[in-house]
Fold this protein.
Amino acid sequence: MSAFLEKFAAYGADVDGVMDRFMEDEELLMVCLDQFVADDEVEQLKEQMGKQDYEQAFEVAHALKGVSGNLGLTPLFDATCVLVESLRHKVYDHVEEELSEVVKQREEFVKAYEQMK
C-alpha cells in the first residue's frame, strides 16, 4: 500500500472499496479528491440550510452523500447520511447540529488530505 493510501486509511477512508471502484487507479482517485476539495458542495448546503430551503438542501446533501461515499470518505459520508435522512423525512429538529457535523467532517477531511499529498 502506498504512503498516500496508508494516510487515507488512517483518516478513516474505505480504501478497499474506493480502490475497487477506481480500478486500483490511485492517480485518478487523487484527481477526483482534488476536484472534490475544490467544488465544496458543503458551502451550497450551508446556503440552502440558511435559507431554510430544505428541499434544495436535501438535493445538495444527497449529492454530497453520493460523492463522499464513492470517494470512500466514510466519516463525511456517515455524517451526511444522518442529515439526508432528517431532510428526507422532513424532521428538522436537529438539522442545524447535523449540518455542523457535516461541515466539521469536511473540514477534517480537507485538513487531512493536505497532509496526505
